[in-house]
Amino acid sequence: MPLRPRLLLLALSTSILAPLACSSAAPATASAEIVRVDALLSGRRATLLRARTTREVRPLAPGAPAGEPGVRWELIDPTGARIARGTGPDVHAARYEFGEGEQVDPVANPRSAVGTISIEIPNVDGTLRFWDADGTAAGEVPFHALGAPAPGVSESSLVNLSTDVLGAPVALVDHGDARSHVNFLFLPEGYTEEELPQFHEQAARFASGLSQIAGYSDHWDEVNVYYQDVRSKSSGIADPTRPDATRSTAFEATFGDGVSSPQRCILPSHRVSAAAIASAHAIARKVAADQIVIVANTSVYGGCAIPADRIAVISANDAAIRIVAHEVGHSLFKLADEYAYNPPTCDVARWKKGTANVSSDLAALPWQDLIPDGTTLPSEPNDSATPIGAFEGAGYCATGAYRPSDKCMMNLLADSFCPVCRREIDRYFAKRTGAGPINDVRVRNASGAGLFVGCDGTTSETCSELTYIAAGKTALIHTQDGSMILDNQTVPNAPVAMSFQHVTAASADVTVGADATHPLR
């Protein structure tokens, strides 16, 4: 079933739109108040790829993991007044985490030469300006307000698909309407037209491999997998460590140079065209893809990911599918890395608020409700995914940060997802597939003080009255379609004030944080 409007509004909260006071000569707004814009950032150039009205698109993907810097943008009107600004994920941040043998490879994460960002802006004429995560200017591009489109028709004249895109997307796994499923799209890189049957076979093996990984297998009937043929002029991909290994391919993918990025990290190079990246995203829109997987025509184990762009690039090596399984943990499920390496990458302070699976605060662990009573914290290593506790060494830090299980795929590729990560995967699928009405909600109080939570409706056996939940505790609230009320007016020393605040749960397990604007997470 399609996502409900209330879920749509919650999911859009990661698009930080901040309209500012306009000048006295503020421009007129076109018929659509808000539009979504996709832009390509490459070097110091910004290229507008696509613009369309927000009622025609799915919710924006969540931004970068907590604590990471991101891209800044602003919209300037023709008078020079700033009318909107916001931030987005670091679109150039790439991940290379595991070497051959699936061991953590202690090499600094590389940077992608290109990245795309989706933002929402007022539908007015102006200039979009961007800054990279390090504060350097990333280019600017003019934006012209869209007119009122016909019902159900997108404004999509900004992308011209290459003639090397052959045919329509093909469903490898078809479990139903793409709009109500989580969708993966495989694209070939470095395959000539004659070699595309090899890509089909590899994509089918990858889909089969992913379906057997716990966490994905639990929800496989909620997944669709597609591939799209895109031919390259050359076979294979470029390798900067070998002068003779130059190629002309669809996405200009290349191995790393071994200096600025690990050799086995495969990413599009700075030579890739805006049209090629636009084509990848245009194909993805056809099947409502949540994750793009580019398969490079090389048997050498390797791969890299751009979480903000929801793109993973992997080699045609069967073992590489576990790279995808781990990286999708970042890009879709918003899981943090649970391993520790290179001291310069460790920042314990960033984990103070915690993510679903990493925290530096033993007194307010996000997974506290899953820890058995009487568990000693920190926990002693037990070489197991259970029981749940707080195991030191996570988020790139050897000390001071904790993970919920001793073994997990977010720590080591060879392991399975731990119960805490599995819960986040369950929550993601519940949100994206709209799996039935939410009535009974487990509410964990992480607001920092006691909290009253109740059903937003007439009290009955199926609609709980206001129930007091102590800090760090969890209670089951009977609701009507997930609608609840939060209140702490009578609770002393509450970090934030909540006065009969109306919220809607997006899953059957929610956490209330110390954020009066967006309390649920």
Low-confidence sequence ranges: 1-32, 61-67, 148-160
Mean pLDDT: 78
- What is the makeup of the main sheet? 6 strands, mixed
Helix content: 10-25%
Q: What is the 3D shape? A: globular
Which structural category do the helix and sheet elements fall into? alpha+beta
Strand arrangement, major sheet: 8-10-9-13-15-14
Query: Element order, helices and strands?
Result: HEEEEEEEEEHEEEHEEEHEEHEEEEEEE
**Which strand-content bin applies to the residues?**
25-35%
Termini, distance in Å? Answer: 23 Å
Task: Output the radius of gyration.
Answer: 23 Å
Per DSSP E runs of 2 or more residues, the count of β-strands stands at 24
Q: How many individual helices?
A: 5
Quick rundown:
The chain is of the alpha+beta class and about 525 residues long.
